[in-house]
Amino acid sequence: MRMLDKTLKGLLATMAILFLLPSFFAAQERSNPFELGPRLNLPEADGDSAAAADTGNPFDLVAPANRPARPAPAVSPPAAKKEQAPRQSRYRNFLLITNIGILLLLTILITLFRGQVGKAYRAFLNDNLLSQLQREREAGGGLPYYFFYVFFLINAGFFVFLLLRHYGQDIAYNTWAGLFFCIAGTAGLFLGKHLVLGFLGFVFPIKKEVRLYSFTIIIFSIILGFFLVIVNLMVSYAPENALPPVLIGAYSGIGAIYFFRSLRGLFISNRFALFHKFHFLLYICTVEIAPVLVLVKLVFYS
Fold first, then answer.
1. Residue 239 lies in domain
2. Would you say residue 1 lies in a domain?
């Protein structure tokens, strides 16, 4: 009796297990309320339908449909900074090559014509020595002074280029072309001045005084060329906050030399200036003042 009772209990337990197995497997095939997969794979919906969508998960939070998307942060650097670095590197190389070339040319000229440098400096301070050098030049000893005059034109053109660069004026597509145009413009300006003086000496009976004044321009330009070597080095490599006093010193030195040269020119032409005031003022305004004003207009107001 007891054996039969045990057998019936085992049979009932087996039937209960077989009856519950299909329900267990069916429940496994349905969605898990803690599963995140349906939430991630939901299709995008418009309007209120997205907010009312039921995923079957009571813990699922549906974002509002009108919430704007957050833009992705920009991580790439600006393209302008990438292009500016090589340009600054090329400009520094340009300054280094130009200044080294100028210093090398100055070394060669001083080595070859050391005596002429001393004579030019003494003639810069003394009018009698200037007249003596003028006679030596007419006798055929003026070639070294022309070399130093060309050296001044190179430094003056480089100074004009640095000024244009400092004040944001670009006159050419690259730095070397801009330097060439500045040197050519400076040389053309001084050559035009000498041509005008030669024409005046040919037309009027003042040939001796015109030649002396033309040589005065050369001597004073040679001294100014030595001064511009230092100025160009300082303008090329001085920091931005130190450039204003450097430029003020450069303008002051150039103005002092120019004023001293004008006084020497008045001393040479004193006997003509008293009797031909109109022609003298016409020359001063046309040849001396007008080119300076054009240069100032080009640098500061173009």
1. 96-300
2. no
